Amino acid sequence: MAGSGTAHLRHDQDLVLQVDHLVVEYPSPRGTVHAVSDVSFDLANRETIGIVGESGCGKSTTGKAILRVPPPTSGHVLLDGVDLSSLGTEELRQSRSHLQMIFQDAISSLNPRHRIRDLVGEPLEIAWLESFRRAWWIRAWERYVPWMLRVWRQPWIRKVAVPALTVFFAGLILWVLSTAVGGNNSDGVPDGGAGARIADVLMIAAIIVLIPVVAVLVVTGIVWLVLSLGMPVAGIARSIRVRRARPAFLADRDAKVHAALTDVGIDADAAMDRRPHEFSGGQAQRICIARALVLDPKVIICDEPVSALDVSVQAQVLNLLEDLKAKYGISLVFIAHDLAVVKNIADHVVVMYLGKICEVAPPDELFVRPLHPYTEILMSSIPVTDPNVDPRHAISISGELPSPIDPPSGCRFRTRCPRAAERCVEEEPVLRDFGGGSFVACHFPIERPVTAVSVPVATTS
Ligand SMILES: Nc1ncnc2c1ncn2[C@@H]1O[C@H](COP(=O)(O)OP(=O)(O)O)[C@@H](O)[C@H]1O
Ligand code: SF4
Ligand SMILES: [Mg+2]
After folding, report:
1. Which of 33, 60, 356 to mutate to test the pocket of ligand 1 (most atoms within 8 A of CB)?
2. Regarding predicted confidence, which is higher, 28 or 187?
3. How far apart are CA 299 and CA 294, in angstroms?
4. Alpha-carbon dihedral of residues 261, 262, 265, 266, nearest 10 degrees?
5. 184 φ, ψ to 5°?
6. How many alpha carbons lie under 13 Å from residue 29 in its C-beta half-sphere?
């Protein structure tokens, strides 16, 4: 599969989240990792979008890039129409309370040393502390440090420093060797002769070339040191205000934590002072959901929240998310590698392969009429309980997921696609409308008639 395109984006709905041409690339020693390449989708209020695809296709990276941890390489994320990349540090911190994330491994995402009261109340505490304006000195430090690190990572610094240091140390070695093997001059002082003269020239030239690099590092480092040393003094007034307001905050926090834990089906009175290891996986995931809810977010990104749970507990957590969605009026981005999990919870499903979207469709359309060869293989891999269905007839996918460092040209799925043709090598497919709410990025999609069924609102069973 795999293509780009925006034909599936809606413009006439009450959209809470818009992901626009998102690209995430990681530098690595072997080359650039193209984790997410030009992904766009949108999410309406109180809607759930499911993102599925095999491991390594970029689902988690997409979720994290929406939260800007780390910020995407390019592209935009709009929350309620506001582009998060256009926000300053403080505005971004405030908008983060509207976007929360829960993870697959609930136990690991809860600090084992903290009590549930503090863990669930942590987002409230962070938001409360943010409400106290920092001194300008501290704000200057916060702006300066990322700027300084950007300067230090400028390619010219490495391009100048690495060869210059290499030349300097080559000169130093040459000087040591020449001096060691050379004789003494007329004054009895060791003299390396011509070798030592060449070494001197090399080392002096390297030092001259290194001067601008050292100057940049030293000057920016001194500014950082001065700002850092002033931070404790600059923060005194704010610390006093925070200390005075803390008792009232803690009482309010505990009430909110109690309510959130109760909403997720945890006995709050018994749980508040316990620690994460005293809970089962399902309970820990409920606690994580409570932690995501306390700030009353608009969108929760659920990164494989049920993948590590027993099947019976999976259904409970899915039902809980559905109930909370209605109660809190939230929208969900639900990431899963298993299509069967998203079937009952998502209003729309985005199928990803190697960093790109290959199909977008309502779940009922997708399950009845998968049009993309990759979606069909994913569907075929879902275990069925019907004894008349021979699992050996399931369509299996051949080969490994190609490296995201060097993705295939044209359609990224072509190296494993049973329908691949010459055109797939040369031309990248873009998402096209195939009716019934299905959008597919494939030059040769599976031909199936549009189903007559209308798409019902998904409910968990
Ligand atoms: N910090 C990182 N540095 C380099 N590569 C990364 C990093 N995070 C993820 N990747 C790579 O990006 C690709 C997508 O990863 P991920 O989003 O975690 O996939 P998924 O959640 O679909 O399993 C993978 O090939 C992964 O190895
Ligand atoms: S038929 Fe071609 S374009 Fe379609 S998924 Fe296969 S390789 Fe990609
Ligand atoms: Mg993942």
Report:
1. 33
2. 28
3. 13
4. 50
5. -95, 150
6. 0
Sheet of strand 356-361, all strands in order from the earlier edge strand to the far edge: 99-102, 299-303, 331-336, 48-52, 348-353, 356-361, 439-440, 432-433
Check if 59 has its Cβ closer than 6 Å to any atom of ligand 1: yes
Report residue 39 as tokens: 């992904």
Confidence of residue 110 (pLDDT cuts 50, 70, 90): very high
Measured from the Cα of 424, ligand 2's closest atom is 2
Q: Whose CA is nearest to atom 3 of ligand 2?
A: 442
- Structure-model confidence comparison of residues 51 and 185, the more confident one: 51
Tens of pLDDT, residue by residue over 355-397, are 999 999 999 999 888 999 999 988 887 766 666 666 666 667 7
Whole-angstrom Cα distance, residue 100 to residue 123? 10
Q: What is the pLDDT of residue 70?
A: 87
Q: 434: how many CB neighbours lie within 10 A of its CB?
A: 21
Q: What is the mean pLDDT of the chain?
A: 89
Residues with CB under 6 A from ligand 2: 1, 373, 411, 413-414, 417, 419-420, 424, 429, 442-444
Give ranges for CATH 3.40.50.300 in the chain.
15-98+297-440
Rg over alpha carbons for the chain, rounded to the nearest Å, is: 29
Q: Decide which of 3.60.150.10, 3.40.50.720, 2.40.128.130, 3.40.50.300 is the CATH code for 15-98+297-440.
A: 3.40.50.300
Burial readout 290-329 (b: 16 or more C-beta within 10 A, e: otherwise): bbbbbbebbbbbbbbbbebbeeebbbbbbbbbbebbeebe
DSSP 374: H
Q: What is the pLDDT of residues 181-217, one digit of tens each?
A: 877 777 777 777 888 889 999 999 999 999 999 999 9
Task: Evaluate if residue 454 carries a pLDDT over 50.
Answer: no
Q: Is the pLDDT of residue 341 over 80?
A: yes
Atom 20 of ligand 1: nearest residue by CA position: 56
pLDDT in tens, 231-271: 999 889 999 999 999 999 999 999 999 999 999 999 999 99
Determine the atom of ligand 1 nearest the C-alpha atom of 58: 17
Residue 4's contacts (CB-CB under 8 Å, 6 or more residues apart) are 21, 37, 38, 40, 356, 357, 428, 430, 431, 441
Q: What is the mean pLDDT of residues 267-283?
A: 94
Q: How many CA atoms lie within 13 A of 223 on its CB side?
A: 15
Residue 457 pLDDT: 37
Judge if the beta carbon of residue 51 lies within 6 A of ligand 1.
no
Write out the DSSP string of 108-168. Answer: TTS-TTS-HHHHHHHHHHHHHHHTSPPPHHHHHHHHHHHHHHHHHT-HHHHHHHHHHHHHH
Q: Which residue has the tokens 């399931």?
A: 394
